[in-house]
Design a protein that fits this description.
This protein is an alpha+beta fold. Helix content is 40%, strand content 11%.
Amino acid sequence: MEDQGYRMPPAKVFQDNMSAIRLFQTGKCSSSLRTRNIAIRFYFVKDLMDRGEIAVSFVGTNDMVADILTKPLQGAKFKELRAKLMGDCDSA
């Protein structure tokens, strides 16, 4: 798109884990046993953030629209997320 002359804003990435967001913002991936295994993915995401290609922001677990695609939901929660996914703000 940029080669065609369109300015592309950063892609929005929603995350419900504040610790992960804090890691990306500080730019420090510790070498502890708990975070050592995410180093490759961390630096990939951090590089995309630094280049302005993505913007990571917090969305609470109850409002995570992607759950409808990854979890078996039923009842009211399914209907609420389906409405958000389909852009129907009135029925949400």
